[in-house]
Specification:
Elements lengths: L7 H10 L5 H5 L2 H11 L2 H7 L5 H9 L8 H10 L16
């Protein structure tokens, strides 16, 4: 995935959806950031990033989703939006059944 700009809008979203890291650090990991936006972001957040990320970025995030970020509802929703049916299982942390 392409690098994300350190714009004020993205920094604000990053500080809200990934509250446990500095926003600049979060934006250096685009897939991690986008997975959190897809799970915890608001409609306004999604509208703000619309010019920066596209459907291929959402698909790539699903393909490489970090375990433990998506909840079942968000995972099912985004897989449906991205045309991935049937929905694959949620990514799991290693050692978790």
């Amino acid at each position: 995935m392409k690098p994300l700009p350190l714009s004020p809008e993205l920094l604000r979203i990053a500080s809200r959806v990934v509250w446990f890291k500095e926003p600049e650090e979060t934006l250096r990991e685009p897939i991690h950031f986008l997975a959190h936006v897809m799970t915890y972001g608001s409609l306004e957040d999604l509208k703000e990033i619309d010019d920066i990320v596209g459907m291929e970025d959402y698909r790539e995030t699903l393909d490489h989703a970090p375990p433990g970020v998506f909840d079942p509802r968000s995972w099912a929703y985004w897989n449906l939006i991205c045309g991935r049916t049937p929905c694959p299982p949620l990514p799991l942390r290693k050692g978790v059944l």
